[in-house]
Amino acid sequence: MKPADEKATVVEGVDAVETRSLARRSLGSVHERVDPRIRPADRPTDEELDEGYVHQLTDYIEHKHHHHDRNRDHEKGVSDKGSQDSRTVADETIYVEFDDGDPRDPMNFTYARKWLITFTASFFSIIVASSSSAYALGDPSMIRDLNATQFQATIGLSMYTLGFAIVPLVSASFSEEFGRQPLYFCSGIGCLLMHLMTALAPNIQTVIVGRFLAGAFGSTGSTMVGGTIADIWAPHERGVPMSVFAVMALTGPGIGCVASGWIEQNPHLEWRWIQWIHVIWTGVFVVAMPFCMRETRSGVLLTRLAKKLRKDTGNHHYRARVEDERASLRTLIYISCTRPIYLLVTEPVVAAFSLWVGFAWGILYVLVESIAPAFRTIHHFNTGETGTVFVTMILGPLCGLAIQMYQEKLYAKYVPTKGPEARLFSACVGAILFPAGIFIYAWCTFESVHWIGMVVGVWVIMTALFVLYVAVFTYLADCYGIFASSALAGQSLCRNLLGMAFPLFTEQMFERLTYHWGNTLFGCIAVLMIPIPYVLLWKGPAIRASSKFASQAMQKY
pTM (2 decimals)? Predict the structure, then answer.
């Protein structure tokens, strides 16, 4: 059979259960996409395909890597043999893909399996989101026990978001190469151990290090869940699953703060038990994950099948399309580790949304850091009562969910004509609600104004933040398809760096500007960002058409 034949076939002489309905395609007809920065000459030869990375690393150390001469000659344009070899590989390569309806394709999982995966991954999200904010309510007892300063305690809050920002640059892309499931499991164990480290910390320095590492491991529960949902749900289906994820991710801070406020109020529990509770819940996730989760990255599953075909048939021309990104350890590291930053810097859609959601995330952590002292100072609340104020962080996303349900109806109606931009109607509403909520909160920060005014402001902010959060994840997932985790990791970098930075100057800013004018300043900045979703709704198709990455996903529409 010719390599260009697109008809699904069963390969003779191998396990029919493992290889049934695998389509064999040529490079020109293969559907699976890879990083557009990969050139034909970068693709591995048949001999290189199954070479281990450990062996390659040894060759690098000994300066004997067999790609070196080929890459150097290609760059100089002096190796005709290299070009001829690459053409030969292109002519002989047979790409394997899932055929339509293949139950091994994650897109064809049963709805029960899809929802189990979605809820399990989102459960990890609510744990890490809760931990991000619950820590702040334990500041008073931790400062007393560890003889620390308020600023040192605040660094612990910021270090968690710093871990969230940096690690996905590597982990998100590597999950696209090696699979989601191993990263979920390792991240869950690492997150559990880091919470244990914080709970047993003898000094504030250990707390700060533990918080950074907990955020690093926990970042999987933020950035990779969106990619997991994109793996198993078709674009027209993923709005509701993404909303479920967003509800858990954004109610997590509220749930954590409500619980930790009363834990801190109890002199027998205080800050260490805030960490112990997270150890327990993370342990539940680690135990449940192997039973509830499945590998969802289709490229990884196809790679395993292609390796089996090469082994069973002796034909080394079989490969999965994603294996073209693995020509060498050097190429793999370059592609995987630079893709999120590359998308953030070169893709206007990712850059614009990252700036917007980054500022919104900074405001979220300003609220986490400032609500307790604001209500204590202005309305004389105790620790438990200030924790209860965070119930608004639970109610806001639930109200946002109602808006999102209507957005899903609009999406179904307009997606045939507008494509992914049909995701942005609710974001246009959220763009107005967000500064409105900040202004309400700012202008109610007076003792003469009932405390419910500030609560309403927080509720409106969280409603808008939920709508914005869902819009970012669903829109980027639709625009970037198989590169969704990298696009989301890029915006996560911007989002969490601002989330890290804002609490570090919050206390000082409010001391100088007061809660009234400090929050008014934030509201004015939010007003300047209102046009972002409207511009994307208007010019989104033209912007995406000029993108190498987004243009691949556009073929669905």
Answer: 0.75
Nearest to 529 by CA among 394, 407, 284, 361: 361
The single residue listed with the structure tokens 């308020």 is 150
319 three-state secondary structure: strand
294 CB neighbour count, 10 Å cutoff: 16
Give 7's DSSP letter: S
The tokens describing 393, both together, are 């962080």
- Judge whether 407 and 545 are in contact, CB under 8 Å: no
Residue with tokens 């500030």: 454
Cα(277)–Cα(224) distance, integer angstroms: 24
Measured CA to CA, the distance from residue 157 to residue 251 in angstroms comes to: 18
In angstroms, how far apart are the furthest CA atoms of the chain?
Answer: 82
CA terminus-to-terminus distance, the chain = 32
Of 370, 363, 557, nearest in space to 468 by CA? 363
Contacts of 259 by beta carbon, 8 Å cutoff, 6+ apart:
130, 134, 274, 277, 387
- Amino acid 87 reads R
**pLDDT tier at 81 (50, 70, 90 boundaries)?**
very low
Look at residue 23 and give its three-state secondary structure.
strand
Instruction: Match 């307790």 to its residue by tokens.
Output: 372
Instruction: Tell me the three state secondary structure of residue 314.
Output: coil
Single-letter code of the amino acid located at 130? S
Q: Give the whole-angstrom CA distance, residue 310 versus residue 95.
A: 12
d(CA 147, CA 149): 7
- Per-residue burial over 117-147, b if 16 or more Cβ lie within 10 Å, else e, is bbebbbbbbbbbbbbbbbbbbbbbbbbebbe
Which range among 286-300, 341-355, 430-444, 539-553 shows the weakest confidence by mean pLDDT?
539-553
C-alpha to C-alpha distances, 230 to 156, 224, 226, 238, nearest whole angstrom = 32, 10, 6, 7
Q: What is the chain's length?
A: 557
Whole-number Å distance between alpha carbons of 197 and 270: 16
SS3 512: helix
What DSSP assignment string belongs to 392-409? HHHHHHHHHHHHHHHHHH
Q: What is the CA 300 to chain-centroid distance, rounded?
A: 19
Q: Please answer whether residues 212 and 163 qualify as being in contact, where contact means their C-beta atoms are separated by less than 8 angstroms.
A: yes
Nearest-angstrom CA–CA distance, 278 and 394? 18
When the pLDDT of each residue in the chain is averaged and rounded to a whole number, the result is 80
